């Protein structure tokens, strides 16, 4: 995985670029939360679930089904709280959640993504891996390898995200 903070980059850059009138603050916060949500599956390690299990890391919480259904449930239950239209809420939350497994699929480590759960337990990667996989232990970020992870995420996620936000902001200002 990229670090949990970097998973927030997609909704943050999109939301800030599109502006509060299109993506209200509550919707933006929900997008950030959903972009981080799939990695809650690391808690399964505490219960002895193996990494490669569908209920393990990068399993069902990283599936396409999860990415489409969870935003739908959020929109149906909390649309008024988001203060935006149903389609817009669902689209933004789906893009936010789906971005998580897409970013994971371009990392250099781990077991791949269980995109096709529950139809298949096969794990997938994107055709190319460019983001250095983040370690689970925080103290590893203080090592040279940890620094490489941070630089890699800045280069492949935050920099394009900031450019996209800037472009959207410019288009909005016209
Ligand atoms: Zn993940």
From TrEMBL:
<feature type="transmembrane region" description="Helical">
    <location>
        <begin position="27"/>
        <end position="47"/>
    </location>
</feature>
<feature type="transmembrane region" description="Helical">
    <location>
        <begin position="149"/>
        <end position="169"/>
    </location>
</feature>
<feature type="transmembrane region" description="Helical">
    <location>
        <begin position="85"/>
        <end position="103"/>
    </location>
</feature>
<dbReference type="Pfam" id="PF04307">
    <property type="entry name" value="YdjM"/>
</dbReference>
<protein>
    <recommendedName>
        <fullName>Inner membrane protein YbcI</fullName>
    </recommendedName>
</protein>
<keyword id="KW-0472">Membrane</keyword>
<feature type="transmembrane region" description="Helical">
    <location>
        <begin position="59"/>
        <end position="78"/>
    </location>
</feature>
<keyword id="KW-0812">Transmembrane</keyword>
<dbReference type="InterPro" id="IPR007404">
    <property type="entry name" value="YdjM-like"/>
</dbReference>
<keyword id="KW-1133">Transmembrane helix</keyword>
């Amino acid at each position: 995985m990229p670090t949990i903070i970097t998973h927030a980059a997609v909704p943050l850059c999109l939301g800030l670029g599109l502006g509060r009138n299109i993506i209200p603050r509550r919707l933006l916060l929900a997008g950030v939360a959903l972009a981080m949500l799939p990695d809650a599956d690391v808690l399964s390690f505490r219960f002895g679930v193996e990494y490669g299990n569908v209920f393990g890391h990068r399993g069902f919480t990283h599936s396409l089904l999860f990415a489409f259904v969870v935003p739908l449930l959020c929109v149906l239950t909390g649309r008024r709280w988001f203060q935006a239209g149903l389609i817009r809420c669902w689209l933004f939350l789906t893009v936010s959640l789906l971005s998580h497994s897409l970013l994971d699929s371009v990392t250099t480590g781990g077991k791949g993504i269980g995109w096709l759960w529950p139809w298949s337990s096969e794990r997938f990667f994107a055709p190319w891996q460019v983001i250095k996989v983040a370690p689970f232990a925080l103290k590893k970020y203080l090592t040279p390898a940890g620094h490489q992870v941070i630089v890699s995420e800045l280069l492949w996620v935050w920099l394009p995200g900031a450019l996209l936000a800037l472009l959207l902001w410019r288009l909005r200002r016209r």
